[in-house]
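Ex. 9. Protein: SecC motif-containing protein.
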Amino acid sequence: MKLGRNDPCPCNSGKKYKRCCMDSASKQHCEVYDEIAQTIATNPDLSLDEMNLIAQHKISGINNSSLDDFCGLSANQMDNWLRAPFNELAGVTISIPNELTASPVMRYLAIILDEAMQQGGSFKATAKGNLPAQIAKQASELLPEFAISEYEKPVSISEFAGSNEDKINALHYTRILADIAGIIYLQNGRFHVKKTAQKQYQTHGIKAFFLPMLEAATTHYNWGYFDSFVSDCELRTFWVFMLWRVQTHESVEQLIEEVITAFPALLNETPATEYTEPARLLGVLIRSRFIERFLEFWGFITVNPKRFSDGDPIAIKANIQPLLKQTFTFDI
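Predicted structure tokens for SecC motif-containing protein:
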């Protein structure tokens, strides 16, 4: 049986569905349909064409009006951010920064490409199929140059340093993205840089791969790759909205609240366990998958890992780095 807007909400809150779990966009669409029905009822002589024009006008108005639950975005704007291809996103301009040395991902990619170019376009992989130890060593030596490094103590647990690829998550992430983006591939025990990528690198340098790598990270890479959470929560879909919000106020806690308000259905994808509630688990996923293993890996933000002071929790602030503002400009 279809759930009506005036039926009791299935979450057992005691409220009507329209006053509880129905999202803001759905509420307003129901309201506009009610208005259309009332207009037709009071104007029985309207032709079918006239009724269609009235419906189109009202629906267009509601789709383009700001919604509090979406932090002022319209349903149309949000739909674009959730569904549009990477190069068709509205309200945001994505640029290639002039300088990429502050980005761990792009610095690691340069090491991989340089190693291949020095050996005629390819180099030998380890027996396990990973990047060789000398690349991991070069990657680890870059840690002091990254803004993240001030928080990385001890280095033995850093995501940006280690003795091999398996112990440097940011390096492993970079290699996966480069594969997804069609820059490198593993064949017959060797990593190869595609011929077209070699020409691009020789002509344009590392900047040639910034947008392809970013697109791979936001459209194809599995954000749950590094963790073991049993959840169908696909946070990657909401990356533009989350990026806009965190760039606006720099508060991770506020970001989590805004995501829950805008997309309450995500709580159904993060079921409660005996240890944590859905909202808390969703917050953990946002911090680990979006903040730490996307924004920090790219050098867009830094976050102090210290969570408590004298036993009291510390608000998590996303310290915006210049690279983020150079890459993303929002016009909302």
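Check your answer against this statement. The chain has three domains: 1-63, 104-220, 235-330.
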